[in-house]
Amino acid sequence: MIRLLSVRLLQAILVMVAVTAIAFVMFRFVGDPVASMVREGATQAEKDAVRVALGLDKPVLAQFVNFLGQVVTGDLGTSYRYQQPVTSLLLSRLPATLELVIVATVLALSLGIPLGVLCALKPHAFFSRLTQSATLVGISMPTFVTGLLLILIFAVNLRWLPSSGRGDLVDIGLWQTGFLSLSGLKSLILPSITLALFQLTLIMRLVRSEMIDVLSSDYIRFAFARGLPRTYIYGQLALRNALMPVVTVTGLQIGQLIAFAIVTETVFQWPGMGLLFTNAVGYPDVPVLAAYLLFVGFLFVMINMIVDILYTFIDPRLRTR
Amino acid sequence: MATQSLMRRLPPVSVVIASLVLAIMLILVIFAPLIAPMDPRDVASYSLMDMEIPPVFMEGGDSRFLLGTDNQGRDLVSVILFGLRISVVIGLGAVVFAAMLGVVLGLIAGFFGGMVDGIVMRVADIFVSFPTILVALLISGIARAQLSADAMLAWAPLVLIFSIAINEWVQYARTVRASTMVEIARDYVRAAKVIGLPSPRIMARHILPNIMSSVMVIATINLAGAILTEATLSFLGAGMPPTYPSLGTLIRIGNQFLFSGLWWIAVMPATVLVILVLAVNVIGDYLRDHFNPKLMAT
Prior knowledge:
With 321 residues, chain A is mostly helical. Chain A contains 13 helices and two strands; from the N terminus they run αααααααββαααααα. Chain B has eleven helices and no strands. Chain B is mainly α and 298 residues long.
């Protein structure tokens, strides 16, 4: 077990170094960092001064080591566009993204699991077939189209809900939350539904197919033969095992979640990290791009490790290896 | 009994409809310049006089413009036909590029094994852990920083194809590698090795034809994803420019007019996009279930 964990940790560090190297290459070689730092019409001497100040006159390897040191201490440079430290820029946008993602995930899980179980238990019922075909439409529906339609119906035509922004925010220490005001909660509804829909279809299909697999296994048949109550068999024995892959997939889907959060935030002009990123692509604000890449890479590595560790705890068979 | 087994061989109605829809769309795409009432790239063919006309079925519609016009007076039918064309071409381009890259790398990894296999598959792991849209946006940002605005216009389709394919090849590589490892143990491959055929020839002429069916299935499923990714990127402003719009760009343009009540400018191209992707998905699902049960889990 300790060996397994240390191997995973080593792999994680290697991946992080690789991602940092890519971020470094972007930072250093994409565009001209000096040109974007000095004022227009700067003399050569001024440019050289900036070059030395940024450490760009040193050998590339020394620069990379320097960059690694900066990354570890949380210094990710200055945004070309906002002229602010990238780290604080990202952190100030973090609450918006996290609140959106958490609400969407809770929504997707609390609807997706029951629907998936229902479709598995009664595969030929009209309702199940309807849900099944609806998921195919759901998968074919791009996130931004879902968002647009929701805006068109609920914001433009019915005027029930706001179409952009986070509404009124309440400060809790460093965290600005939209949970505590009515307009904040109203603003959350459309974006979180949009983001939840794509996860919902995925979770539903997964729970359904896992549940069907589990239900045809021997131990379930024996449980029926023993005369155990149906609710106990379905709820305790079958669902528990069917949910195992759901844990992994939900964990590993974080990448997709980030990607779709980028799209959702752009559609609803939700001031999170995703919107910051799309705006940085158009500008192009290279330090923000590189920092975002680092952030996402770090997140992936952490989540992969946590999922692996969780697995060894949930599934005793893995511990003996 | 006989009729029943025949029935089972026939694809379900949904697949037939999807194939028909796709076929019609492909014909429209190929003959777009002949079918479209006007050429959206030709500024002289439309005028601002006709701007913001709703579709014919609405009050104020004009029979010349079946689906209405956009803010510049361009006929939406024509704009959508040309947009569909760009979307399909970029989607196909990305799928072909990703398939070629994935097949070659998968064959090499599966055929040689060992170190080569390890390196290729670890690189694949890293690529696949980053979502396609994120990587494509990054590449778009880098391209923007490196290329001038004019160069960016000219290169936009190629940048898109590259940035979508660079993440999607992994699926092909993994499947091809697994199949290659199965095929390599078969007698015909061993025989080919014994008579001293060069490795590239064995891979291309002997193994490849036997694994092509699974590649085709992945390609179909992948096509829907590639078209969606392109549309998303263009919608986010990191794809095709407004002067040469794909369906995603059209929806992006229409998005600005949602609140003016001009819903059709966004909804019409969006509908076409969803129908296209749905048709491809239905066919892809069917192919996956019926020609390659091994892939069902993915």
